[in-house]
Amino acid sequence: MNDTTPTAPVIRLAHLYPDQLNVYGDRGNIITLTQRCQWRGITLRVFPLDVGDAVDPDAYDLFFIGGGQDKEQGEVARDMRDVKAANVRAAIDAGTPLLAVCGGYQLLCHYYRDAEGEELPGIGLFDAWTIHKGKQVARCIGNVALSWEGATLVGFENHGGRTYLGERATPLGRVLAGHGNNSEDKTEGVIYKNAYGTYLHGSLLPKNPHLADRIIALALAHARGESAPAALTPLPDDLEWQAHNVMLRRLGLPTTDRPTPAALAR
Ligand code: GLN
């Protein structure tokens, strides 16, 4: 290779606690990101960050953290606060994108009070908190759909904790069917800068290619040192939108057209 050969773009993804937080196919979200990058000639490099590993706030273009049972959340919560919190926060404040699912989402809020009433510390990145009201209270389980930026997001949720957003928090979307954050106020997930928290599990990115591409566009811009999301080559995505619309139909909701590239570039 000489100096004039363009190098293929690389996105560096930090995967937080892949061994503990990986329920309901959350790892499938990373497979989706990897494949959608590969189809466009972008390399997605995944760096697992386990208990005890320090976080270099400048070393990654994207963070991902999946869901987990209360037990696994307990194993990582203290490490998250004592070892990783400051630098994860610094990276997100500087605009690095992040996707957090369910148990991981809960740990990025102020705290998670588990089914036994024990409070796991969160890192307070999102102005929200989560309360599990005890094993006798029904869990929030099932398919879910929400409105998101003029389009819809679909997925599967399974959580005992109910998350409540503080005044500084912006929900990711509005629940059209299912439970969302707490089954009460119709909010689902949260957004802070380029960080997204959600209860939607591993079918999230395969069935929501517009969200997958939003995340890739933000991460690619970060890799290039740009602030506006990068323009991405559109992919066919017929299968992905079919799967998306099957979920909407199953929930008794009208199917939606795929968002236009202009809407996605916002
Ligand atoms: N243990 C948490 C709860 O039940 C998170 C569950 C999950 O990640 N699926 O609320």
In short:
By secondary structure, the protein is of the alpha/beta class. It is 29% helix and 26% strand. It is built from seven helices and 14 strands.
Verbal overview:
By secondary structure, the chain is an alpha/beta fold. It has one domain: Class I glutamine amidotransferase (GATase) domain (Rossmann fold, 3-Layer(aba) Sandwich), CATH 3.40.50.880. It has helices at 27-38, 70-93, 103-107, 204-207, 209-224, 238-250, 261-264, and strands at 10-16, 43-49, 62-65, 98-101, 111-113, 119-121, 128-132, 140-148, 151-159, 161-165, 173-177, 187-188, 190-192, 195-198. It starts with 9 loop residues before the first strand and ends with a helix. The mean pLDDT is 94. The structure holds glutamine. Glutamine (GLN) binds at residues 23, 67-70, 73, 102-103, 106, 132, 158-161.
Order of helices and strands: EHEEHEHEEEEEEEEEEHHHH
The CATH class designation is: Alpha Beta
User: Strand portion, in percent?
Assistant: 25-35%
Main sheet attributes: strand count, strand direction, barrel closure = 6 strands, mixed
Helix content: 25-40%
Strand order across the largest sheet: 2-1-3-4-14-13
First and last CA, distance: 36 Å
What binds here, in terms of ligands, is: glutamine
Just name the CATH architecture. 3-Layer(aba) Sandwich
Return the structural class. alpha/beta
Q: Find the CATH superfamily.
A: Class I glutamine amidotransferase (GATase) domain
Question: What form results from the Cα inertia axes?
Answer: globular
The tally of structural domains comes to 1
- The name CATH uses for the topology is Rossmann fold
On the 0-100 scale, what is the average pLDDT?
94
Count of DSSP strands: 14
Query: With helices defined by DSSP (H or I, 4 residues minimum), what is the helix count?
Result: 7
The low-confidence parts are none
Rg calc:
18 Å
